[in-house]
């Protein structure tokens, strides 16, 4: 159970970073 929770947390963090990067790139354009 704990392992799966950590995986979901990591996926959430990665998703957030990707979202921030895409938003910054769209601002520059």
Number of domains: 1
- Secondary structure tally, helices: 1
Helicity, as a percent range: over 70%
Say how many strands there are.
0
Share in β-strands: under 5%
Give the mean pLDDT: 93
- In angstroms, what separates the terminal alpha carbons? 42 Å
Secondary-structure element string? H
Structure description:
The protein is mostly helical and 29 residues long. It has one domain (1-29). It has one helix and no strands. The radius of gyration is 13 Å and the shape is rod-shaped. The termini are far apart.
Highlighted features:
29 residues, 93% helix, 1 helix, rod-shaped, mainly alpha
Quick overview:
The protein is mainly alpha-helical and 29 residues long. The protein has one helix at residues 2-28. It has one domain.
Topology overview:
Layout: H1 2-28
């Amino acid at each position: 159970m704990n392992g799966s929770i950590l995986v979901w947390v990591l996926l959430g963090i990665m998703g957030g970073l990707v979202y921030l990067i895409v938003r910054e790139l769209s601002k520059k354009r």
